[in-house]
Design a protein that fits this description.
Rossmann fold; single chain; mainly alpha
C-alpha cells in the first residue's frame, strides 16, 4: 500500500489514508524509517476516520477488511470502490454496483 500511495502522489493525486493500526507517533525503528523515507509527509495524509477519507475522496481504494471500515464504505455513495484485499463475500460492500475487485468480481 505504501508503494501505491507513493506512486499516486508522484502522479499528482491527492490522498487521504485511514488505518486504525497506524500512528506515526507510535512507529519505531526500521518501520518508521521506511515510512518516512517512502512517504515523508505521511502525517498529513493520515485521516482520523473513514468518514474523513470519504469526505475527501472521489475513489476509495480498500486495503483492509476492518469491520468498521467496511460499515463506513456501505455509505460511500456512487464513488468507485477498488478492493485490493478481497473483502469478505458476505460484506454489503461486495454487492454495491460501484465495487470493483482486483482479480475477482
Amino acid at each position: 500500500m505504501v508503494e501505491l500511495a507513493e506512486r499516486l502522489l508522484g502522479k499528482g493525486y491527492e490522498l487521504r489514508i485511514y488505518d486504525s493500526n497506524v500512528s506515526v507517533s507510535r512507529l519505531l525503528g526500521a518501520n518508521r524509517d521506511f515510512l518516512e523515507d517512502r512517504l515523508p509527509h505521511v502525517g498529513r495524509l493520515l485521516a482520523n476516520s473513514v468518514d474523513e477519507v470519504l469526505d475527501h475522496s472521489d475513489v476509495c481504494v480498500i486495503g483492509c477488511t476492518d469491520p468498521d471500515v467496511l460499515v463506513a464504505l456501505e455509505s460511500a455513495g456512487d464513488r468507485p470502490l477498488v478492493d485490493l484485499v478481497r473483502v469478505p463475500d458476505n460484506s454489503i460492500v461486495r454487492r454495491l454496483p460501484n465495487y470493483r475487485g482486483i482479480g475477482w468480481a
